[in-house]
Design brief:
The chain has 117 residues and is α/β, with parallel strands linked by helices. It is built from four helices and five strands; from the N terminus they run βαβαβαββα.
Length: 117
């Protein structure tokens, strides 16, 4: 399937999403902060990034969106947003392939990754 980078500062949510995506056949790398996310991105060259926008601030997530898109124009970027206003009207909104509102259903998350696979 796909190589996925999952970025979330909530370890519990991160682990659940990782298990779900691995069960769906994906190879999943994880990061709980922006610096580790950049490291993992460079190491694994993911086909899809699932990114919680607040790490803990929205600016951290927005910076990652820019960084990932610049590094790989073809990577699929899926943002998990508890507050849609964090992304609305910002230039980064055009760099994202899909936005999923939190809480996100397991089927919806898996479907967002499968669109790329």
């Amino acid at each position: 399937m796909s190589r996925v980078l999952l970025v979330d500062d909530d370890p519990g949510g991160l682990e659940i999403r990782k298990m779900l995506l691995e069960r769906d056949g994906h190879h999943v790398s994880t990061a709980t902060d922006a610096a580790t996310a950049i490291e993992r991105f460079r190491e694994t060259t993911p086909e899809c990034v699932i990114l919680d926008l607040r790490l803990p601030s929205p600016e951290d997530g927005l910076a990652l969106v820019r960084e990932f898109r610049e590094a790989s124009p073809a990577v699929r970027i899926v943002v998990l947003a508890g507050w849609s206003a964090d992304l609305e009207g910002r230039p980064e909104q055009d760099l994202v392939d899909e936005v999923l509102a939190k809480p996100v259903r397991s089927e919806r998350l898996a479907g967002a990754v499968r669109k790329r696979a």
